[in-house]
From TrEMBL:
The lineage of its organism: Bacteria, Bacillati, Bacillota, Clostridia, Eubacteriales. It holds the Pfam family PRA-PH. It is an enzyme of class 3 (hydrolase). It comes from Acetanaerobacterium elongatum. It is found in: Cytoplasm. Keywords: Amino-acid biosynthesis, ATP-binding, Cytoplasm, Histidine biosynthesis, Hydrolase, Nucleotide-binding. This is Phosphoribosyl-ATP pyrophosphatase. It catalyses: 1-(5-phospho-beta-D-ribosyl)-ATP + H2O = 1-(5-phospho-beta-D-ribosyl)-5'-AMP + diphosphate + H(+). The gene is hisE.
Length: 109
């Protein structure tokens, strides 16, 4: 998924938080609060796992999209910007291939 797509969706989520619209599922989640948002994140994560375990790629993609959406709602609820997540992912991307260094230990200590 392109960053523009995620950013665009995130902007809609943040707009719903700032200016609630009647009948909006996103607004419903914000109204119910953090516990409801976390519950939905957990449910979507479980559904993603089940779809993947069932080897159903189409359903797995749909569940991943649901999980992304609910994570964006969580981020907006907690005041976390997408750019913060992207920055951490970029740092982690730079570390790819460092597994051997990660597992080295000082045997003299």
């Amino acid at each position: 998924m392109a960053n523009d797509t995620l950013q665009g969706l995130f902007e809609i989520v943040k707009a719903r938080k700032a200016q609630p619209e009647e009948g909006s599922y996103t607004c419903y989640l914000f109204d119910k609060g953090l516990d409801k948002i976390l519950k939905k994140c957990g449910e979507e994560c479980s559904e993603t796992i089940i779809a993947a375990k069932n080897m159903d790629n189409a359903e797995t993609v749909n569940e991943i999209c649901d999980l992304f959406y609910h994570l964006l709602v969580l981020m907006a609820q907690q005041g976390i910007e997408l750019s913060e997540v992207e920055a951490v992912l970029e740092e982690r991307r730079k570390k790819i291939g460092n597994l051997k260094q990660f597992h080295q230990t000082n045997k003299e200590s």
